[in-house]
Design goal:
It is a single chain. The longest helix is centred in the N-terminal third of the chain and has 41 residues. This protein has two domains: 90 residues; 223 residues, no CATH class. It is of the alpha+beta class. The strands form two sheets. Strands 2, 3, 6, 7, 8, 9, 10, 11, 12 and 13 form a ten-stranded antiparallel sheet that branches. It has a three-stranded antiparallel sheet with strand order 1-4-5, with no helix packed on it. This is CxC6 like cysteine cluster associated with KDZ domain-containing protein.
């Protein structure tokens, strides 16, 4: 079954309008395939799957009637040679039964030589969906209703040839996994590790202060970098919004926000817990230093640049916490308050229409370096989960020479466009 990786390899597959027809078909097929792999179904998801199945059948009919008829497709050279050799062997067997083995081998050699010297005739290839594979697509919904999800059972645990050995290997593998689980359960853990695995909290960021960063020295060492423009002003504005005390909305004075020792403390990872579509708790580990550095948040109703989209996507540049003292009205005491924040580089959508309307993956790109909204700070409590964002290789990199404009943002490896790979998340496909 095709996957979303087809968009990574090549986006402009054919000239228009055939290219759009193929991409729409691929989108619908991946949607249908993802629905069949859901680990939990409801009446609502089965209704969606039934509608998508009808759309798959209709689009395949349109694909054959429009795209396939526009191209004269023939057999490959390897297929022609294989057919010629097969015919030669069949002819040799027929004659060999009458004239003996010697004459059969001589005739087979003659047929092969004749097939090699004679010009190859390539047969026309036509798209055929009158097969059982396509016929069975319409039975998936009824089968799931009767037997359960497609990944909850297997009718072929072995290949039925050497099943004793294969069943033994399965049992040994299961026992080995159980031993590993027992070691993990009885292994002593520190308290912070238990808190990190707690599924009931929204997120977890370490409280250690082993990696302090002096804000003033950091800004001086990266002077001229577009990413740190108005860094301290934006940070204090963000912290002021998060301090829920009376009088903050009236004064709106960032000078009342004091960062203790003028330091922020860096962390390598942030863990975000969420409830999956199958009502199970799951966790995403986001690391700014790896490819798992993208997060998604809900789009605000008044966000003009993201109208038509439910989510906003950001590339996480860093995970920090600071010790804040608020000296404005409503202040309780001078005890520092530990506040967590994420330093984020935001994506913007390249179209105001969602993927479900265009039947193509949503495309995003980074804002221009001169845009004041490109870099900002985010409260970890607003993060929904991590997301899978893949480059659009068709549109090349922004800086082919390999030197970007911001060392803090690491934009030397940025691409002109990216795809939101929604198919890796089951809840997004429904």
């Amino acid at each position: 079954m095709v996957g979303s990786e087809i968009w990574i390899c090549r986006y402009d597959i054919l000239p228009e309008p055939h290219n759009s027809s193929v991409l729409h078909l691929l989108f619908t097929m991946v949607h249908w395939h993802r629905l069949t792999k859901l680990q939990m179904h409801s009446d609502w998801t089965l209704e969606i799957m039934d509608c998508v199945t009808l759309a798959v059948g209709q689009q395949f009919c349109d694909f054959k009637a429009t795209v396939c008829l526009a191209y004269n497709l023939q057999e490959l050279h390897q297929e022609v040679e294989a057919h010629a050799q097969c015919k030669a062997k069949q002819a040799a067997k027929q004659v060999g039964g009458k004239k003996g083995k010697h004459s059969s081998s001589m005739l087979e050699q003659g047929e092969v030589v004749e097939s090699q010297t004679s010009p190859a005739v390539k047969c026309k290839k036509e798209f055929n969906f009158q097969t059982y594979k396509f016929h069975a697509l319409g039975d998936y919904v009824s089968t799931i209703c009767q037997y359960g999800m497609s990944n909850s059972y297997s009718s072929e645990p072995t290949d039925c040839k050497s099943f004793e050995k294969q069943l033994t290997q399965i049992k040994c593998r299961q026992a080995h996994i159980c031993r590993i689980s027992d070691k993990i359960v009885h292994c002593p853990h520190i308290e912070i590790a238990e808190l990190a695995r707690n599924p009931h909290i929204h997120h977890h960021i370490g409280a250690t202060e082993k990696s302090p960063v002096h804000i003033g020295l950091y800004l001086i060492s990266h002077k001229g970098d577009p990413a740190i423009k108005n860094f301290l002003v934006k940070l204090k504005d963000h912290l002021l919004e998060q301090i829920a005390v009376p009088g903050v909305g009236e004064e709106n004075d960032t000078n009342k926000v004091i960062i203790k020792d003028n330091r922020m403390y860096c962390h390598n990872i942030a863990r975000f817990n969420y409830t999956n579509y199958d009502v199970r708790r799951a966790q995403d580990v986001i690391n700014p230093r790896t490819s798992h550095c993208n997060v998604m948040v809900l789009c605000a109703a008044n966000d003009v640049g993201h109208q038509g989209h439910k989510f906003v996507y950001g590339n996480m540049l860093g995970v920090y916490h600071v010790n804040v003292i608020y000296i404005g009205s409503g202040m309780v005491n001078y005890t520092p308050l530990q506040m967590e924040f994420l330093w984020v580089c935001w994506y913007e959508p390249m179209a105001q229409v969602s993927a479900w309307e265009t039947l193509t993956l949503n495309q995003v790109r980074f804002l221009l370096m001169a845009d004041q909204y490109l870099f900002n700070f985010l409260d970890p409590a607003n993060v929904l989960r991590g997301c899978h964002i893949i480059p659009c290789f068709e549109k090349d990199k922004r800086h082919p020479e390999g030197s970007g404009m911001s060392a803090c943002a690491g934009d030397k490896d940025d691409w002109h466009a990216y795809f939101i790979n929604q198919w890796v998340r089951g809840i997004i496909c429904v």
